[in-house]
């Protein structure tokens, strides 16, 4: 029974009746005020204790330190801890654990670890909660190896890891794409009879889905239901995202529809996942229907929502709709980011709306976003596709001089444009300059150059680049392979090309 207000009232009646309280009485009053989130009253009581000559006990300090931690005043809690030690009071396990927890919450993990070592030196054995707190903090700071060391340390001291320590590590492993290690920890957890909670199961579902192992993820969901752990919206979102990743939108929609049947409400992430899948499948009317549904249900679209829809509209050439979404986004007070502008810029460039694309670059700059080489590459591609090769070359040369520096994909786009116009010597020269400029050729650049030569019937140079590509450990992509196969079966050039490749 937590009737703190009643307790405070009784203690005040005692005072009115002239009954003088002792340290225990004041500690109870302190605890009540801290639990009621009236820290200022708590410290007034502390001050009164000192005036009456009552010596604070470990319980007094423990109560105030925990009250400060709960209120997020960790710096003040640490100062009170330091003052307490200076005055000769020896902190107990509860106080150390409280301070460790507070330090971890503000990211001062190093100080927390230092206190953990001091605890051990004073004969106070940290428990699983203390270790779990530090493991969680290290995982959040991406110090996963250090977290594993602490995990091993706690087990070597005979402290059984709890659900928190296992879940933190499993989640960190999933975030680091260490799926096998995450699976190993999960199996170990179950084998040691440490029961996974909804967060543990959800981390595993998310990891399996990201690896494309959707059937195993589904099995995990079924297993958690069997053992009485109910999946939450995050579990279902992960499962839905797994189907989206595999392009199985009908299955993703089944999961989406099943959520409400289980009495769980969709959140913005749920709608963003299903809309993203629709956009990738070019089912834009369906995506917009979900968009309208989420707003009817009182959910507020975020930047990611608009980025998904703008990107989808831009890819299929519905540029007016994409621009209207951008305007609507801004009208609702959302600030477009680099992804927003890139999606629209790509659509404008590929569909020949170059004036609008250039204007959008200026809008980006005026909003404080500096275009990267990715956005400039999109513009170069657009210029090349629409026959404005000289403008593309001019922009490319400008970038080489003043930046941002073209990357391997910028070079490949430029080479492709030159080959399209039959300027093979210029393309070959640029292909050679790539590595001089510090841009190592990759599969994309090799395949672009080979296709350029084959398209223009320059079989000799195509064969040489194929040979070099193979030596570098790269292989032909689907488009290049199709062109090579067609050439082998060609009556006029097939035999010559085969003999040429054999000689090289």
Short description:
The protein is mostly helical and 504 residues long. The chain is built from 29 helices and no strands.
Give an overview in words.
The chain starts with a helix and ends with a helix. The chain has helices at residues 4-16, 23-35, 39-51, 58-70, 74-86, 93-105, 109-121, 128-140, 144-156, 163-175, 179-191, 198-210, 214-226, 233-245, 249-261, 268-280, 284-296, 303-315, 319-331, 338-350, 354-366, 373-385, 389-402, 408-420, 424-436, 443-455, 459-471, 478-488, 494-503. The chain has 504 residues and is mainly α. α14 packs antiparallel against α15. It is built from 29 helices and no strands. The longest helix is centred in the last third of the chain and has 14 residues, at 389-402. The model has no long low-confidence stretch (mean pLDDT 87). Helix content is 74%, strand content 0%.
Outline the fold blueprint.
Blueprint: H1 4-16, H2 23-35, H3 39-51, H4 58-70, H5 74-86, H6 93-105, H7 109-121, H8 128-140, H9 144-156, H10 163-175, H11 179-191, H12 198-210, H13 214-226, H14 233-245, H15 249-261, H16 268-280, H17 284-296, H18 303-315, H19 319-331, H20 338-350, H21 354-366, H22 373-385, H23 389-402, H24 408-420, H25 424-436, H26 443-455, H27 459-471, H28 478-488, H29 494-503
Helix pairs in contact: 1-2, 2-3, 2-4, 3-4, 4-5, 4-6, 5-6, 6-7, 6-8, 7-8, 8-9, 8-10, 9-10, 10-11, 10-12, 11-12, 12-13, 12-14, 13-14, 14-15, 14-16, 15-16, 16-17, 16-18, 17-18, 18-19, 18-20, 19-20, 20-21, 20-22, 21-22, 22-23, 22-24, 23-24, 24-25, 24-26, 25-26, 26-27, 26-28
């Amino acid at each position: 029974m937590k009737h703190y207000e009643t307790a405070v009232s009784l203690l005040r009646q005692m005072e009115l009746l002239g009954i003088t309280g002792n340290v225990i009485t004041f500690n109870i009053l302190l605890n009540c005020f801290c639990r009621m989130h009236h820290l200022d009253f708590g410290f007034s009581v502390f001050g009164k204790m000192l005036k009456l000559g009552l010596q604070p006990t470990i319980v007094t300090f423990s109560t105030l330190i925990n009250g400060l931690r709960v209120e997020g005043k960790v710096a003040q809690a640490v100062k009170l801890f330091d003052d307490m030690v200076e005055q000769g009071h020896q902190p107990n396990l509860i106080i150390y654990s409280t301070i460790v927890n507070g330090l971890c919450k503000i990211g001062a993990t190093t100080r927390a670890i230092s206190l953990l070592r001091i605890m051990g030196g004073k004969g106070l054995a940290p428990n699983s909660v203390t270790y779990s707190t530090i493991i969680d903090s290290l995982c959040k700071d991406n110090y996963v190896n250090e977290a594993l060391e602490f995990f091993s340390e706690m087990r070597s001291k005979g402290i059984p890891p709890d659900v928190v320590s296992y879940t933190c590590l499993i989640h960190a492993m999933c975030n680091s794409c260490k799926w096998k290690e995450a699976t190993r920890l999960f199996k170990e957890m179950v084998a040691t009879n440490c029961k996974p909670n909804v967060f543990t199961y959800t981390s595993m579902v998310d990891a399996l889905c990201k690896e494309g192992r959707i059937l195993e993820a589904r099995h995990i969901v079924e297993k958690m239901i069997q053992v009485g752990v109910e999946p939450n919206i995050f579990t279902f979102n992960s499962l839905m995202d797994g189907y989206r990743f595999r392009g199985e939108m009908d299955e993703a929609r089944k999961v989406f529809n099943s959520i409400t049947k289980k009495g769980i409400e969709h959140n913005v992430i749920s709608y963003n996942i299903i809309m993203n899948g629709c956009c990738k499948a070019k089912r834009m009317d369906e995506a917009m229907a979900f968009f309208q549904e989420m707003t009817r249900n009182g959910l507020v679209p975020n930047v990611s929502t608009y980025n998904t829809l703008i990107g989808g509209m831009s890819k299929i050439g519905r540029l007016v709709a994409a621009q209207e979404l951008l305007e609507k986004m801004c009208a609702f007070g959302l600030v477009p980011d680099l992804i927003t502008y890139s999606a629209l810029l790509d659509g404008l460039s590929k569909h020949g709306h170059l004036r609008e694309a250039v204007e959008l670059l200026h809008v980006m700059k005026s909003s404080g976003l500096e275009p990267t080489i990715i956005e400039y590459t999109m513009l170069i591609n657009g210029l090349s596709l629409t026959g404005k090769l000289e403008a593309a070359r001019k922009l490319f040369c400008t970038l080489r001089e003043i930046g941002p520096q073209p990357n391997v994909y910028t070079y490949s786009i430029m080479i492709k444009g030159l080959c399209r116009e039959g300027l093979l010597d210029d393309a070959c020269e640029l292909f050679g300059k790539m590595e001089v400029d510090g841009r190592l050729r990759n599969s994309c650049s090799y395949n672009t150059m080979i296709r350029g030569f084959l398209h223009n019937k320059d079989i000799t140079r195509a064969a040489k680049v194929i040979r070099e590509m193979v030596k570098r450990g790269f292989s032909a992509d689907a488009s290049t392979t199709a062109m090579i196969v067609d050439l082998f079966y060609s009556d006029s050039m097939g035999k010559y090309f085969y003999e040429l490749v054999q000689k090289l």
